[in-house]
Amino acid sequence: MNLIRAALFAVFAFMGTISLSAQSWLPPAAAAVVISNELTLLNAPDAPVPTQSGLSGLKDRRTSDVNCSECLLKNVKKQFLTMTLTKLKNGATDTGVAVEEVRVFLIGGANGNNTLLTAIQQGYQYMDTIL
Known about the structure:
- The chain is mainly alpha-helical.
- The chain has one domain.
- 72% of the residues lie in helices and 3% in strands.
- The protein has 6 helices and 2 strands; from the N terminus they run H-H-E-E-H-H-H-H.
- A two-stranded antiparallel ribbon has the order 1-2.
C-alpha cells in the first residue's frame, strides 16, 4: 500500500512539474484579483434544489450529500485559492511557484488518501485553468 502511495505521489509531482514548466502564469497582482473573484463565486450559497418527491418542497443542496465528491473538490479548490492568495499577499513574486507550494503542502497533508489526492490534482488543474 505504501508503494502505491509513493507511486501516486511521484506521478502527481511529475505531472505538476511538467505543468508548472509549461504554464505561463498570471503576474501575482492579476492572479490575486482572479483568485478573489473565484473565492467570491465559490463562497456564494448554493441554490436550493427540488427534492425528488416534490412533496416536501425544497431541500438545501449542502445537506443533501454529506461527504460528496463534489463537496470535497469545492473545499479543495477553496483551500488552493485561499492559501495561494495568502502567499501572493505575503510577497510571493511568482504565481506558479506559489501554486506549486500549496499543491505540495496539500499532498503532504493528504496522508495517502487516494480520494483526496485525486481532488488535489483536480484542484491543481483548476488553478492551472484560471491562472
